[in-house]
Design brief:
Distance between the termini: 32 Å
Strand content: under 5%
Oligomer: single chain
Radius of gyration: 13 Å
Structural class: mainly alpha
Largest sheet: none
Shape: globular
Helix content: over 70%
Order of helices and strands: HHHH
């Protein structure tokens, strides 16, 4: 369950942060991206919550996509 305060924070993320989160979630982050992501996480306890919500949303969207078929 996503909390409304977290949703607001997620919506304010910049494109670079979204790219970092996406790379990490997909397991495609290089060393530089991993370091930038760890630095971002360390800046605020809220960032861990944001990451977990974004990761959950990504995983759920992947699960939905795997059940859809487009003919």
């Amino acid at each position: 369950v996503c909390h409304l305060s977290t949703i607001g924070k997620i919506m304010r993320l910049d494109a670079h942060t979204w790219q970092l989160i996406g790379s990490v979630v997909r397991g495609e982050a290089n060393e530089e991206e991993e370091a930038a992501f760890r630095e971002w996480l360390s800046r605020s306890p809220d960032h861990e919550k944001i990451f977990q919500e974004a990761k959950q949303a990504w995983e759920e969207s992947r699960a939905i996509q795997s059940h859809l078929s487009f003919d």
